[in-house]
Design a protein that fits this description.
This protein has 185 residues and is of the alpha+beta class. It contains 5 helices and 8 strands. One of its GO terms (biological process) is DNA restriction-modification system.
């Protein structure tokens, strides 16, 4: 089954805000994630919470999609830093349908084929961007929840394999370095 994103998520832009006194609200930015899309540092609150942020507060399971810049990517908000709002770099997607898992949506948006489609719609040369209107029109194949979970498990195993291969490569390089250095002693 194919569905347009607009039919399965509520989508809104992140907020523009400046740091405040007595900060108690996290301001999530694209630079807060590393290449593996994990939190890249210990974040500190930089905004002062007020009622103007109430409709923008992130909920666990919200999908943060970086829609501006050189890298488009999606992450599921896990609540590690709360309360929080997303910066304007993000479109915040809140799944409104029980037929799709937030993590499956993240997987789909980060998939190379989807990324290729997204880049074909990107506007701007110095700072590429994907508009909310364009993202809402993207069609996502939605298998049953069991299959979504299977895809996510397979993806998790793929990431573990990459990590192990990287470690093996590093160990192999260290071994060769030691072996060649000992050969000249």
């Amino acid at each position: 089954m194919l569905e347009r994103l607009e039919n399965i998520v509520q989508m809104k832009s992140g907020v523009f805000a400046k740091s405040g006194t007595n900060p108690d609200l996290f301001y999530i930015q694209s630079t807060d994630f590393d290449k593996q899309l994990s939190w890249n540092k210990k974040l500190n609150p930089i905004l002062t919470n007020s009622s103007k942020f109430n409709t923008h507060l992130l909920k666990v399971g919200d999908v943060l999609f970086v829609s501006k810049g050189r890298n488009f990517f999606a992450v599921a908000y896990d609540g590690a830093y709360a309360p929080a709002v997303a910066s304007t770099t993000f479109l915040v997607l809140r799944v409104k349908s029980k037929i799709v898992l937030p993590d499956y949506l993240v997987w789909f948006l980060n998939h190379p084929q989807t990324q290729s489609v997204l880049w074909s719609f990107a506007k701007g040369s110095s700072i590429p961007s994907i508009s909310k209107t364009i993202l809402e029109q993207i069609e996502i194949p939605i298998p049953n929840l069991s299959k979504q979970n299977t895809i996510l498990e397979l993806h998790k195993l793929q990431l573990q394999e990459k990590k192990i291969q990287k470690q093996i490569g590093k160990l192999r390089q260290e071994y060769i370095n030691q072996l060649t250095y000992k050969s000249i002693e």
